[in-house]
Amino acid sequence: MMIDLSxxxxxxxxxxxxNVKSKDCLFGLLNETLTPMGSRMLRSNILQxxxxxxxxxxxxxxxxxxxxxxETFFDTRxxxxxxxxxxxxxxxxxIQPTQPDIQHSEQSINHILMLKTFVQCVGPVYxxxxxxxxxxxxxxxxxxxxxxxxxxxxxxxxxxxDDVTFQRSPLDLRNQRTYAVKSGVNGLLDVARQTxxxxxxxxxxHVSDINDQYEMQMETxxxxxxxxxxRIQESNLEGRTMPDILINxxxxxxxxxxxxxxxxxxxxxxxxxxxxxxxxxxxxxxQLIDNVRAEIQPLFRxxxxxxxxxxxxxxxxxxxxxxxxxxxxxxxLAIKSGRHPVHEKAHSEKFIPNDVYADKQQRFQIITGCxxxxxxxxxxxxxxxxxxxxxxxxxxxxxxxxxxxxxxFARVSMDDCIEANVSTFASEMRETAFILxxxxxxxxxxxxxxGRGTSTRDGLAIALSISEALVESQAFVWFTTHFRxxxxxxxxxxxxxxxxxxxDISQEDKMVMLYKIxxxxxxxxxxxxxxxxxxxxxxxxxxxAEKVSKTLQAQAAAKKKSSKSFAIARKRKLVLSxxxxxxxxxxxxxxxxxxxxxxxxxxxxxxRRMDCIENEADDSGDESVIGxxxxxxxxxxxxEDLEREGEFNEAEDDSDESEMTGTDKTEMLV
Length: 670
Hints:
This is MutS protein msh4. The protein has helices at about 5-10, 25-30, 35-45, 55-70, 70-80, 85-95, 100-130, 135-145, 145-155, 170-180, 185-215, 260-295, 295-320, 340-345, 375-390, 425-440, 455-470, 485-490, 525-535, 540-555, 565-585, 590-620, 630-635, 640-645, 660-670; strands spanning about 1-5, 220-225, 225-235, 245-250, 255-260, 330, 335-340, 355-360, 365-370, 400, 405-410, 445-450, 475-480, 495-505, 510-520. The two termini are about 25 Å apart. By secondary structure, it is α/β, with parallel strands linked by helices. The chain is elongated and about 110 Å long. Mean pLDDT is about 85; it is low at about 560, about 620-665 and about 665-670. It is built from 25 helices and 15 strands.
């Protein structure tokens, strides 16, 4: 799936817009990984979700097995915890420096120790997946077979001591480097190690002598800059002055850190002996790395497999802690009780789920509603759960099915671009132009209140023309707007559905946001004024606003009556909707009596809605039945273009409920 940079930012796929350190983004939600490789793979999958159905189904099976098999799940998570960043390590092993120095020699030993630790961690993963049954987990287990890593482990074992491992603390790591290469390889190497050992013992004896002489309780500490140094609590001094033997003293959080001249000399002696050990080991370690490079190809495969397993285990972790469901891959987009994954995390008890349904006959959905009614959250949740489904994750819903989407576009931000000297409207148009140039029939687009950055008339005109182009593209589009005229005009087009977010406005001008999606246009009028009353604008301002609103409404009021021509268009669209339902029934798992009962209900519903359209047409008082040819002539050629696609225009007002709704179809599928 292709996702452009603007969409990545707008949907907060990788980082939160308000606070870049916050985990309130899709990546922060899904990132339950335990290894650096798994985290990187998750990030790359979010930025470029898969479009191959076979890959996604194998991931669903693997996540489902991990989530349902407790022993395999916990064994896998425990086996993943010790892994280091093998991708970075293998890259460092491949690169050869032009001018090696002592630092490179030290790092070479570190890399060998890290590689040894990594190879030793692969075995527990193989054992954890011993009972795996899903194809993807079986493939990962086969890559992690012992015979794939035995050659590398054998090469390392011939040179490196068996009890030496990679350590994270500076002191332990230096000690491991010193004793990494086996004894007997070089006689001078053993002498340098003995010098290192004796100097280290002298440090501890030196500190013990100081404590006895001055009756103090000093502790030995180590860091890469100062090497060994002394630390004492301020409370242990009890008003005494610091001994003159202590140098380089400074206070730090209730402690005094210092050194002595003798300790500085011992540090230098230890460092010299350590460097001698490293330089003497360098030739042996360099030859070892050359031998490892010949066996490095299987290690890359193991690294990729560990990263994939870590990502799948992270998805399974979410399934076990959240109410997620395995998605299906179908021709339509249907979500039952879907939730915004990120908002649900922050408002788990208050978040209200919603249904979503879209197919080729309901591909362009216009969402209207009051301010703060949840329109933006609704369309964002559709895009986010689509991304989740196409990376192999389960989704927050009771039921979910998705078509394969190859492009995702989002025009939801409302910001100026000062750096590029672009206003809000210019930025909006630039992003929309990019969408129109690249959109395809398998794309998914969400657009939030297009045209609000300019005048009402120009904004409506641009929003209408762009909507026409998006309908022609055959893509799945969710389009939120406050332009009621846009919803009414586009309602005549085939493939267009009007939805709204419910809100309850009482006679006392109190607003209650219900956050539930419903069919048709938004019925509440002047909801902007109602919201203004809620926020306590001055009464005089509200009074003037109400007068102006009534005047404008009286001037623009024009009732559009239904006609037989529109009834013909509605009938044809209802027939096309019936075709989609029958195709879905054919692809479903229903058989026998269950299928017959379902088809009988569909037939009854179809007949009832056809009769409803006939009755509404008769009640309209339109006595002249306009034929199909006359309708094409009177509609400026628009229906002629639609007939080439096998579709016809729809004309419904906001109270029309005579068509099969998306919610009905979702319930039938479930």
